[in-house]
Amino acid sequence: MSSRPQRGERRADALSKERIVTAAVEILDGEGEAALTFRALAARLSTGSGAIYWHVADKHELLSTATDDVVARALAWVAEDRPPREAVRAIALALYDAIEAHPWIGAQLSREPWESATLRIFEGFGGQLQPLGVPERAQFDAASALLNYVLGLAGQHAAAARLAARGYPDRASFLSDVAARWTERDPARFPFAHKVAPHLREHDDRAQYLAGIDLVLAGIAATAHG
After folding, report:
1. How far are the Cα atoms of 44, 47, 83, 113 from residue 59, in angstroms, in the given order?
2. Distance in angstroms (rounded) separating the CA atoms of residues 70 and 67
3. I want to staple 125 with a disulfide (CB 3.0 to 4.6 A). Which of 32, 90, 146, 180 is the partner?
4. C-alpha span between 38 and 115 (Å, rounded)
């Protein structure tokens, strides 16, 4: 009677959680969140679903763990010896590139911002605030501003992923359509939208994102020296 649990235990040990998460990320990157099922994962790993359940309770835990894994690997590239302002920018850019490379992360971060991956981001930003000279009373607000900015990016990528799933055209066509809709509105009511519509068509997402980080950092610097 003891032989079956022992075989199951050896099989579970051979199939590590790391292998499961790696395979899950591959499915998510290649086919999207809808394609990630325990059946598809078991087929990719050449195992049974029971061996996967040994390590992961359900799809919710799998998505959370996969998101945390990608975020952790992205932040691992940020050198610890950077000056604090450069470190904040490096963290922000690492997260941008991770969300760009793995669009499903945007949906996961937007859906459940209290999970481990979000805390990891919050900690990464927060660790740079004291070296920046931010008073302790203002550090929570400063870290939250940076985190919320990144979560805004995540939400945009989640929306873009939904549009892509519905077969919407490429980014350039989408932005051109939106800009055209802006300019169709009453210019007396929406003068700013009319003025910036050409920038919407032509802007670089990564450069604009970093410009926003710099604006947040400028506000943080004013707090630090205020």
Report:
1. 16, 17, 39, 17
2. 5
3. 146
4. 21
How much is the pTM? 0.83
Same domain, 128 and 46: no
List, for residues 109-159, the tens digit of each pLDDT value.
877 777 899 999 999 999 999 999 999 999 999 999 999 999 888 877 777
- Its domain, for residue 45, covers 1-56
161 and 52 co-located in one domain:
no
Tell me the per-residue pLDDT of 150-174, one tens digit each, with 9 for 90 and over.
988 887 777 766 666 666 667 778 7
Pairwise CA distance, residues 94 & 77, whole Å: 8
Tokens found for residue 161: 């992923």
Q: Kindly give the residue spans of alpha helices, DSSP state H, lying in the chain.
A: 3-14, 17-31, 38-45, 49-53, 59-76, 84-101, 104-111, 116-126, 136-165, 171-184, 191-202, 205-225
